[in-house]
Design a protein that fits this description.
Strand content: under 5%
Structural class: mainly alpha
Helix content: 55-70%
Largest sheet: none
Amino acid sequence: LNLDSAKQELEEFIPHVRNMSDSSIRKMAGRDLVRFKQFKKQGIAVKFGRFSQKENNQIRKNVEDFLSITGIDSAEKLLFTSRYPEDKEAVNRLKAEHLFCEKLAEGIPRPWRLIYYRARKMFDPNNYKGRYTKEEKEKLKKYHALHGNDWKKISEMMSRSNLSVAMKYSEIKSAINYGPWSKEEIQKLMHAVEEVIRKRMEMEDANSLSSSEKSDRDLLIDREKLYQKLPWTEIEAKVGTRYWRQCKQKWTTILTNKMTKGQRLYRGTKGLEAKINLIKRLYEMKAEDANEVNWEELSNAIGDVPKTYVQAKFYKLKVSCIPFWQKKTFSEIVDYLFEEKLPEFEEML
């Protein structure tokens, strides 16, 4: 396919394809287009967002199958070949001979690049090394001063994953405040969120509004844009004294108060009703994985609140009510809440 034809065909599956680089489009046309068409014939849509447990299991199976076919002795060697310079040539030859790209993506309706990144995250032994020691934090600061945001190089020096070192540096780079939010910090947060949303809306409107309409136009946005896919690391930098996760949690609290006019939805009788409704709705959905849940729709079970608020309440519910919840699947957690805790909450109500 030539580039224009590739863009046109991919646009059916990837609406934002024209914003991608030419090299990315060419790779996607080679690796993904045939797969996407096959999924379409089966009535399966291309997916984005978080991977489900089912998809994670499929990736594990695909990697294990490829290792058994080729005799490559570890997933790390397969997915992080550059760490093994003495075996690199042989491993790359086996990957080419046995169609690694095709085999890794088998049965997963997503762009190959996202599947590959997910597999690397799942099988990177440097991802699961626990908390950073004081010595490691000092090393991280020193390496960043020397190499800037070259996370690949820093991750190799620290034997941690790229994502891990980047996130940890974001957390420790400045004097983070862990106490109550000051009025000044809240103002900075609100201005930062407004700024990124305005910038996004102006870009979206660039081709659809004339200059005179833009100058007189109020900022009218869908509610979802107030809390979905906001660039939290950018917002963190604008606030300056808080880690990005703190900014996200605080913004959710502010939005919840605005949307509910300050009512305390999760206290007393209303709190019990909300828990009961949440458990019932989750049970009715019969979802196998948290990623299959439409949290937006579920927000009605508690009230007019952001979906992140509902997700936080579900998290508190499972942590406080379910013994060894970490060892249970999502569906087992929901079943336990429905069978064991729901009768208790109904009796209390």
